[in-house]
Each structure stands twice: as C-alpha cells, then as structure tokens.
Amino acid sequence: MSSMWKGGNKDNNDQLTSEPPNPIPHDDGASRSSRRSYEPSRRSEEPNERTRLLDRQRPPPNQDGYLDPDDPAVSPYNLWTVRAMRYLTILFLVITFLWWVLLLVSIFVSPPGLHTRGSGFFDFAYTCLSIGNLLVVTVFFITPAKGLRITTAIIAVLLAIDMILILAVPRIRLEEGWVGIASVVWAFIMAVWCILTDRVVAYGKKEEEERLTGRAETRRTLKEWVAVLVATILTVIFIVIVILMTGTLGMRARDATLKMYGDRILVDGDKYAVHFACVGNATETDGSKDPTIILEAGEEPLEYDFEHWAYSAYKNGTISRYCYWDRPGYAFSDNAPSPHSAGMSADALSEALARAGEEGPWILVSAGYGSIVSRIFGSRHLKQVTGIMMIDPLHEDLLHRIGSPGRGFLLWAWGIISPLGTVRLAGALFKARTREDRVYGRNAYQSGKFIKAQLQENLVANSFTKNEVSSARSIQSTNTPLVVVSSGIQVRKDSEWERKQKDLSTMTDNLVSWDVVNKAPHQVWDTLDGRNVMEKRLKQLVKASFKVKTEAEAEVEEE
Fold first, then answer.
1. How many CB atoms lie within 10 A of CB 7?
2. Would you say 340 and 369 are in contact if contact means Cβ atoms under 8 Å apart?
3. How far is C-alpha 136 from the chain's CA centre?
4. 397-438 residue pLDDT tens
5. What are the structural domains of the chain?
6. Is 49 exposed, middle or buried (0-12, 13-18, 19+ CB in 10 A)?
7. Which of 95, 191, 201, 240 has the fewest CB atoms below 10 angstroms from its CB?
8. How many CA atoms lie within 13 A of 238 on its CB side?
9. At what angle do helices 466-475 and 370-379 cross, to 10 degrees?
10. Which residues contact 375 (CB under 8 A, 6 or more apart)?
11. Strands (DSSP E) along 261-380, which ranges?
C-alpha cells in the first residue's frame, strides 16, 4: 500500500516538483495554522469509499510540500485496499442481515432444511452478535482504535470457545445442528474480520498521513474521541453478552450429562426425537390384558412431580404399568418444527408408541393443557383407549388464554434473551440449582427449548389446536369411562373455569366421577388430598375400563 512521489528537484522559481523537500516540523501550533491557507475549494466534505481517489501526481499546495493535517484529502480512503475492505464489510453485513431475517422467520415457521432440534434462539443470538460487530466497524470505519481491536479480539476468543463447546458436546451439537454451528462459525469469522479491517484502516491512515502531511497524526478531534468511546463501550457490552452465552453453553454441556429413564425416539420423519419411558410389566387379569396408563403433562415437565404420583400408584398396586413421554421441547425431548399444534403432538405420541412396540388398551391420564393433547390422541385411537382421566383440564373455549398475542410476544422476547442465561446462571452459582432443576424441575421454564415449546403452543392455540380438539370431541366415543378431578382453588376464583370443568365432565356419557378437591391448586397432586382422590378415582377408572372392554368384546362375538 506504500506510495512514492516521482519527479526532479525544486528550481529557483519555486516550481513544484513531485518529490517534496524536508518537511517543516509540526511541533508548534503556529506552524500548523500557517498551513491552513490552502484554497477553500479543498475543504469539501469528508471523503468516503465513493470519493474519487486522490491524484497522486498532484503536487501539494503548501510551500513545505505537504498538505494540512485537517485537509479532507488526507484519508485512508485514498487506498484501494481500504475501500475494498469497506465494500466487503458492507457485503458481509447484508449477508448476515439476510441470514438474521431467515432465522427470525424460522422461529415461527421452519423453512425446509433449517429446523434444528434445539430452540433456535442460540443461532439467532450469534447472528445478532455478528450484525452488532459489523455495524460497529461500518459506522466507525474511519476511526480505528487499538482498544477496539483488543475488545473485538476478546470477543473472537470467546466465540472460539463457544465453537469448541458446540462441536465437542454431542448433545449440544445435535440440538444446534448445522444452522447453529454455521452461525457461531460465521460470528467468529466476522469478529476476526473486524479486527483485520480496523488494523488495515489504521495502517492506511498512518501511511497516508505520512505521505501527505509528513508524519502520522497523533491527535484526535472531539468527534473522533466520542466515536472511539462509543465503539469501545459497544464492544465491551458484546464481551459481556458472549461471556454469558459461553457460561450458558457450559451449563448446557453439564446438563447434557444428566441420565434419563427411557429412550429418545425419532418421530416425524426423523426430524426430532421425543423422550419416552415405561414403568412396570404388562399383566393380565381374568384373561384380559391390563390397561397401560399413558401420562400427559400439563404446563410443566411431567417428571417434576406428576410422574412421582403415578409411580406411587404403581407401587401401591393401583396400576400395573404406566408410560410417559415429554412433549416436544419439554425436558429430554427435542423441539419440533414450527408451527406445532396439539394434534401434531398427539401424532408424535402415536408414532413413539408404535416405534416402542406399545399396544393398547390405554387409559389416558392428563393435566392442564396436556388434556387437549390426550383428547385428540384418544379420538384417533378409539378402540385402544378404554378410559380417560383429566386433572383440572383446560377447556378448548379457554385456549385463548394461552394463545393471546401479548403472551406470545413476552415468550418471544424471553426466548431471544434466553441464551444469556442470566437467571439460570445466577441460580446455579448462588442458589445451588441442580441439573434436575434445570432440565425438568423448578427452573425448566427458563430453558430456550421450553420457551420455544410454549411459544409454539401459543401461536396456534386459537387456530390449529382449537379446530383439532373441537373435531376430537365430536368423534369421541360416548361410552368411554371418564374421570375429571378439578382444583378447588381454580373453581372458586374463576367461575368460567368452573363452568368449563362441568362441561368437560359431560364429554362422554360414562362419567365415573367429577371431583373438586378443596384447597388444591391447579397442580392437584401437590396436596395430599389431591393425590388420594386421584389415586382412588384412577383405581375406579381401571375397573370401569375392564367392564367397557368386556362389553365391547361381547358385542364383537355376537356380530
């Protein structure tokens, strides 16, 4: 990038030549002021990458052979290398923005080939970081600073650590997929590019100042100092963000070591896997196969406490066998492509049961929103489902409560900042939260996967899901034994909830029992009375299912 003047010497008539004489020292202010008498036409606006290159054969106007340091012609843009890097930076910014838009859309609707088994918030966060770095170097392109290069280098090192974590931990690598890997690699490359660009501009600035003014300028204007300060503050913020993301990745790597009971089963054309497990062995009573209980979680991962109640019922001999699974995005299951409705979850459960070799008869036990999934599943397996038990279930007419736009926006915003993991990191560092707490326990709601699952439920609650469950009710078998257990607290404080609970108790003509458990919250099993009532009614439901099955078999024999 170096350049030289060509020509002869200066004669007695002070004719300018192409080789400047020894420069006058720039140490005092008087000397600098004396060189401000160049033509007003030279004081044009500051040059940029589109400004015409300085004619290197044009002689400087001052008697010492140099331009004034404040002359707009003294600019690193005089170098083709600097201009090319500016154009490339803008090109990279455009490419990154287009990728950012694609990832934003994929949160709501997964384009073919772009679905990841994870939440999709991490790759979006890395792309936001890339845009931030490129914007800083673009806006403050002409004001290079050593501090800026140092802070960006720290970002690059942290991103390199993130790359290693994602690639080295199999579970994280599987969840992030090629989209997440490409996003973090691109973020790292862009950080390195920003360092290189700033260094080249600094070198070009120094070279042009030495060539055109006689020495490299060490002073900065107030505008330049403000630019350096703002750019440094922004990159320091980026450092904090990457540190938090790296900590969250490390915590995810730790959580990936948590062992689970059961297996992950690929569903939906092997696009994602769901966790499925069974407890107990298939037995027979009076020559008939005992029904298997299929558990469906409510608004929280099933393993947290709902499955503990089922295990207690199993140990007490109330049931001989039960199976449970995690809906997509919950606990050990992967996230499903968007959009994802309750009916799609029911289909995923059907496929998981088939691949696991499970056959009916089944009794469906569900809670809250999970009752929507169970009802759809039951309507699609009328012959295999011999009983339905719903615990404080959500009515289809109340789906608008989880499908409100305000709730959806909050879930999206919470998901966007979830890669920072501030609350999860604080819980691990200061409250001794365990892997179990984060994967399926009290802090599971903070994970990106869980937030994505909740967002998916929100987006289609009033459309796909409501239509699916309405259709399910119209084709539900009327002789299927039914048990409804409601929360006394919910019923007392919400009259509409009470009316809808009563309506659900009429879902079939074979109601075994509808109980309202006093002092029980929405999670009825959290109270001793709630657990006792649930176990008692489940035992009655098992007996009723045998009766229905016997009657059905008798009808078949008569035909």
1. 12
2. no
3. 24
4. 999 999 999 999 999 999 999 999 999 999 999 998 999 999
5. 78-255 (no CATH), 263-404+445-558 (3.40.50.1820)
6. middle
7. 240
8. 31
9. 50
10. 366, 388, 469, 472, 473, 476, 507
11. 263-267, 272-280, 284-285, 288-289, 292-296, 321-325, 362-367
Residue with the two structure tokens 């709630």: 530
SS3 content of the chain, % helix, strand, coil (to 5): 55, 10, 35
Predicted structure pTM score: 0.84
C-alpha 500/C-alpha 7 separation (Å) is: 95
- What span, in angstroms and rounded, lies between the C-alpha atoms of 532 and 538? 10
* pLDDT at residue 92 greater than cutoff 50: yes
In 320-395, beta strands by DSSP E: 321-325, 362-367, 385-391
- pLDDT value for 74: 74
Neighbour count for residue 228 (Cβ, 10 Å): 18
Q: Is the dihedral of CA 41, 45, 46, 50 positive or negative?
A: negative
SS3 430: helix
Other beta carbons within 10 angstroms of residue 10's beta carbon come to: 14
Q: What is the pLDDT of residues 217-243, one digit of tens each?
A: 777 788 889 999 999 999 999 999 999
Mean pLDDT, residues 22-38: 41
Maximum separation of any 2 CA atoms in the chain, in Å: 129
Q: In the chain, what percentage of residues exceed pLDDT 90?
A: 72
Structure-block tokens of residue 272? 């994602």
End-to-end CA distance of the chain, in Å? 95
The answer, yes or no, to whether residue 200 has pLDDT greater than 80, is: yes
How confident is residue 52, by pLDDT bands cut at 50, 70 and 90? low
How far apart CA 181 and CA 164 sit, in angstroms, is 10
